[in-house]
Amino acid sequence: MYVLLREFEGRPAATAGRGKDPVNEAMIRHWCEAMGDAHPAYAGPDAVAPPAMLQAWTMGGLSGHADRSSAYDELLALLDGAGYRSVVATDCEQEYLRPLRPGDRITFDAVIESVSPRKTTKLGTGHFVTTRMDVQADGEPAGTHRFRILKYAPAGAPKREAAAGAGAQPAARRPRPVVNRDNRGFWDGVAEHRLLIQRCTGCGTLRFPWLPGCNACASPDWDTVEACGAGTVFSYVVMHHPPFPAFDPPYAVGLVELAEGVRMITNITGVPYDKVRIGMPVRLEFLRVDEDLELPVFRGSEG
């Protein structure tokens, strides 16, 4: 199996791809509003794009890119066929070579850089797939974006090779959250039905999601405040495709603005997906997904 996977290394995932839009002020503004980033460098006549937007200018949306190679889809299909049907994004690395400014035309090339040997993680057993995208702006190198996913069989779920002829498969479970030293306090709060927000003890800034340091003053010191549970839908999407195991599309995923002022991505429950609206009041509740996973979600009301 791994011999077949290694054959994909070095194959193009996209060749001579073109960004669907030039770098523009509207997308920069939307990004900064969503991220809560009011840095003056991102506005005005001499604006530059936030560096972390590097990938945003290359994204193809629902219609995709005409220049996309079939190799990446073939690789994922091979992993699916072997029973590694679950997927989680694990990390990305970006290198910035020059600022992007409104009017820059973006082109890119992407390659399947590596496929790992089979690895066993807390989520399950599978293979890490890394792609590298080289981004150009008006023909000049602008940056490199590496993106890594894990295609895996959830822990306790038999892979196809081992389960052939074994009859019905157990129901798929949602991916497990990655709990580490930086966010363990958040998940400890969830276990107690408390939604905890980090607060910098240096400048008092609230932050969510949890981070190891303050993005306002860089202090590493923090404590927590408990959210009151009230919020409103700041933005949302309705997921139709692609379908994932343990999820039943269509369903609404919302960016909820908490009464405390921070925002979090969560499921919207209690109303049909097509009744969710921006500005809708929502209320915190805790959803038992399975025997050992409970998640904070927000319930809306059609009234």
Entry summary:
The chain is mostly beta strands and 303 residues long. Helices cover 13% and strands 38% of the residues. It folds into 3 domains: 2-156, Thiol Ester Dehydrase, Chain A (Roll), CATH 3.10.129.10; 180-226, no CATH class; 228-303, Beta Barrel (OB fold (Dihydrolipoamide Acetyltransferase, E2P)), CATH 2.40.50.
Structure description:
The chain has 303 residues and is mainly β. It folds into three domains: 2-156, Hotdog Thioesterase (Thiol Ester Dehydrase, Chain A, Roll); 180-226, no CATH class; 228-303, OB fold (Dihydrolipoamide Acetyltransferase, E2P) (Beta Barrel). Helix content is 13%, strand content 38%. The protein contains five helices and 14 strands. The strands form three sheets. Strands 1, 2, 3, 4, 5 and 6 form a six-stranded antiparallel β-sheet that branches. It has a five-stranded mixed beta barrel with strand order 10-11-12-14-13. The longest helix has 11 residues, at 25-35. It is globular and about 50 Å long. 21% of the residues are buried. Residues 159-168 have low confidence and may be disordered.
| Envelope shape | globular
Supply Rg: 21 Å
Mean pLDDT: 90
SS elements, strand count? 14
The SS-based structural class is mainly beta
Q: What ranges have pLDDT less than 50 throughout 5 or more consecutive residues?
A: 159-168
**Main pleated-sheet profile:** 6 strands, antiparallel
Which CATH class of the largest domain?
A: Alpha Beta
